[in-house]
Automatic annotation (TrEMBL):
Protein family: Belongs to the AhpD family.
Matches recorded under InterPro entries: AhpD (IPR004674), AhpD-like (IPR029032), AhpD_core (IPR004675), CMD-like (IPR003779)
Cystine connections: 131-134
Domain Carboxymuconolactone decarboxylase-like: 94-177
Task of the protein: Antioxidant protein with alkyl hydroperoxidase activity. Required for the reduction of the AhpC active site cysteine residues and for the regeneration of the AhpC enzyme activity.
Full protein name: Alkyl hydroperoxide reductase AhpD
Pfam families: CMD
Reactions the enzyme catalyzes: N(6)-[(R)-dihydrolipoyl]-L-lysyl-[lipoyl-carrier protein] + a hydroperoxide = N(6)-[(R)-lipoyl]-L-lysyl-[lipoyl-carrier protein] + an alcohol + H2O
Gene name as annotated: ahpD
Active site (record annotation): 131, 134
EC identifiers of the protein: 1.11.1.28
Keyword vocabulary terms for this entry: Antioxidant, Disulfide bond, Oxidoreductase, Peroxidase, Redox-active center
Natural source organism: Streptomyces auratus AGR0001
Length: 177
């Protein structure tokens, strides 16, 4: 199992990450599509080749072709949106918020999977990318759709652990060079 290989690669000084990795993926209450879509989107967003290489095959095996594509789409479109909307928020001139974005993001309206799943994946990627505007927007859509806070927090926990594991493994690889 790739998850076990990833856990074994985590150094001893980051034992908490190893434990959390097993917990957020291995003991998740999320339905399989939500879980593995979140894992795949976050593995991509983590920008860690090791995390993506280890988790992608299992995600692909647990997702339909449509869900696999949609999770990758969530990571792609949020990589763009998170930079754009985070910048709008951080600029001191509020007039940027009145300008038309002019960016294509059709996949958000028609992701090819249940809208709630896509929104959850987008929220998790936004957590990794640190876009408060996107986090608020996706959280509000999810809450209006009846998704409970525990489910939303579960996705954020997956995002935080995968990001931390990726940063730790990539640092270890750089130090070993």
């Amino acid at each position: 199992m790739a998850l076990d290989e990833l856990k074994s690669a985590v150094p001893d000084y980051a034992k908490d990450l190893k434990l959390n990795l097993g917990s957020v993926i291995g003991n998740s209450d999320l339905p399989q599509q939500q879980l593995w879509g979140t894992v795949l989107a976050c593995a991509i967003a983590s920008r860690s080749p090791k995390v993506l290489r280890e988790l992608e095959p299992e995600a692909k095996a647990n997702l339909s072709a449509e869900a696999y594509s949609a999770a990758k789409s969530a990571a792609a479109v949020m990589a763009m949106n998170n930079v754009f909307y985070r910048t709008r928020h951080l600029l001191s001139d509020p007039e940027y918020g009145n300008l038309r974005a002019g960016l294509r993001m059709n996949v958000i309206g028609n992701p090819g999977v249940d809208k709630v799943d896509f929104e959850l994946w987008s929220l998790a990627v936004s957590a990794i990318n640190g876009c408060g505007m996107c986090l608020d927007s996706h959280e509000q859509v999810l809450r209006k759709a009846g998704v409970d806070r525990e489910t939303i927090q579960e996705a954020v926990k997956i995002a935080s652990v995968l990001q931390a594991v990726g940063a730790t493994l990539d640092a270890e690889a750089a130090l070993a060079e």
